[in-house]
Amino acid sequence: MNKILRRLIYGWVSLLVLVAIEFAGSHVALPRYLRPILMLPALAMVAVVGLVFMRVATGPSVVRTFAMASLFWLLILLGLGMMDPLTRAIYAAH
User: Most buried one in 19, 20, 38, 84, CB count within 10 A?
Assistant: First the structure.
């Protein structure tokens, strides 16, 4: 097995492990202040895809600049998406 194929298989297996961690973590009852921890496997998956499959680290500086800008916007969008679940209050119906 050559080096490129081995790197791709390791990337794929690491994505599967991260999906399993995220799936298992989503079934654990967490307090409200610990819920953002569930975003860590998703961010790690983004890093694996960018580094292993897209090979951003070996690209020219323009590629790295656009990758960093896209990660910045991804963090903004994830933050805005988490605003609703983190701030939602459950009121009892009478």
Answer: 38
